[in-house]
Model the fold of this input.
Amino acid sequence: MKIGRNDPCHCGSGKKFKRCCMSSVSKQHAQVFDDVEAMLAMNPNLSLDELNAALQHKVQDSNNQPHPDFCGVTPTQMANWVYATFDELQWVTISTPDDLSASPVMRYLTLILDEAMAQDGSFKATSKGNLPAKLVKQACELLPEFAVSQFPTNISISEFAGSNEDKFNALHYTRVLAEVSGIIYQRSGRYHVKKSAQKQYQALGIQAFFKPMLAAAVSKYNWRYLDGFEFDVDLQPFWLFMLWRIQNHNSVDHLVEEVMTAFPDLLQSFPTDDDFSPERSLSILIESRFVERFLQFWGFVTIVPRRYIDAEPVARVVQVQPLLKQTFQFTINA
Done:
């Protein structure tokens, strides 16, 4: 169902859609209707059929023109990327790579499934409902095999290691995704793998869960979950546009500029009296929620964790990993 300009915005801000997250796509559609009003003022005797034909022509023409604010993507294409479900996305082919060993998320999921399968489909959770210490230790030992291991960090603050699940963000993220995806569930103090998932794993291996986990990551998982930012800004609808752009130029700073240009209303959700400007706050969110705790958790990119060296800022540039291009093939060449 499409959201009207005066309907409450889906982000929960309480504002009207046109004053909150209304994208340039919707604004362009609104301009078409303004043009029709002007047409009626100049030609008041137009029949309804003539008016409908003129409106259809204007809408189609507008929707299929590359838009400079969208880096050359048309409004029709952008509307698909922003509003379509994971299975209905167009102008991109999403594939399951043959080798998922470079993906932390998929490697951690393998550990969880193997532990359950070794115990007839389930294993005991901790008293807090977390993954057991044995599994956490096994997940920690995988770190040297991932691209992020090139950046040495204190083990106590690493996203990819920790003494327990609470202190191991990438592992906790994986467990939550597995639950959201319907692969595992917790009951009576144990983690269970669903019977259907057990059959899929036995028949197809870990590849069976790549797309369901990815779909959950971009549509069901709350990207605000692992951070303490109070900003009520939903970046998830723009994930595919952001991924396409950063795959093209690798620059977080450039990406932030492109997002601000394509979706300027995002800045209105940030307080103007904060320590950071709205532009700076958006940059922080994009790097934290999209780059570090989505792309990097999946093994799609890496980024230098240190933001300053000798008091000089480090350019926020990602290193695109093979897994990203193996997964996403875009048919838009803008």
Summary: The first helix runs from residue 24 to 42. The two ends are 29 Å apart (CA to CA).
